[in-house]
Amino acid sequence: MDRNWENFLLPYKQTVDELKVKLRGLRSMYHLRKEHGPIEFVTGRVKPVNSILVKSQTRKIPLNKLETDMEDLAGIRIMCPFVEDILEVVEILKNRKDLKVVFEKDYISNEKESGYRSYHLICEYPVQLIDEEKVVLVEIQIRTLAMNFWASIEHSLNYKYQGEFPSHIKTRLQKAAESAFQLDEEMSTIRDEIKEVRKNYRYYKEDYGNR
Ligand code: 0O2
């Protein structure tokens, strides 16, 4: 099929650009309120044409079905400080009026065999073009910084091995993913303990302040 990729991908680029601005704005709002924000940073990309072609072959997605069957032509990634923040971000996104969650994949509770962890929301997003509105699919991946660290490195190594890691490397990557998850859990525990100490200190001050 002779496709004008620039034209085809334009609504996806617009979607990624708009969502990056909106979600980064959300981060600033928490900052202004001086509240703990569940978003550390946001990135986004339109799937490169060569990756689209490879995925359409490996997943047997015909090129005339890309719009409906390739969910991640537009991709947004939200990185959270703590594991608990992930579900908070999921709720925030589900309550938004400018997108509709149509499908979710919880690779946090059900990590992939590779060790990959992330929460994926497949959403419909209406994008305004010159003379029409087009609803496109966008995949929003939500993960912690540690999950992102693991996934980024594993992904870049994947290119080297073209998806087929030798078994000893596969095992080490699975162990590394587990260590990353333990780190996330430890950071959450530390945070809870600090919160508790601060709460007790506040009560102590209030109590003694009244005497
Ligand atoms: P890229 O280069 O990130 O854009 P499915 O048919 O639903 O099983 P699908 O459509 O691949 O398969 O969906 P899935 O499994 O939810 O994965 C979509 C994306 O999640 C991938 O996009 C990756 O970004 C990420 N991902 C999934 N599994 C892994 C993994 O084991 N390691 C890493 N690093 N990332 C993963 P793409 O298409 O691979 O490409």
Automatic annotation (TrEMBL):
Where's the RelA/SpoT domain?
44-165
The metabolic or biological pathway listed in the UniProt record of this protein is: Purine metabolism; ppGpp biosynthesis; ppGpp from GTP: step 1/2
Q: Which domain of life is it from?
A: Bacteria
Q: Which Gene3D superfamilies match?
A: Beta Polymerase, domain 2, Nucleotidyltransferase
- InterPro entries reported in the protein's UniProt record: GTP_Pyrophosphokinase, NT_sf, RelA_SpoT
Q: What is this protein called?
A: GTP pyrophosphokinase family protein
Organism listed in the record: Alkalibacterium iburiense
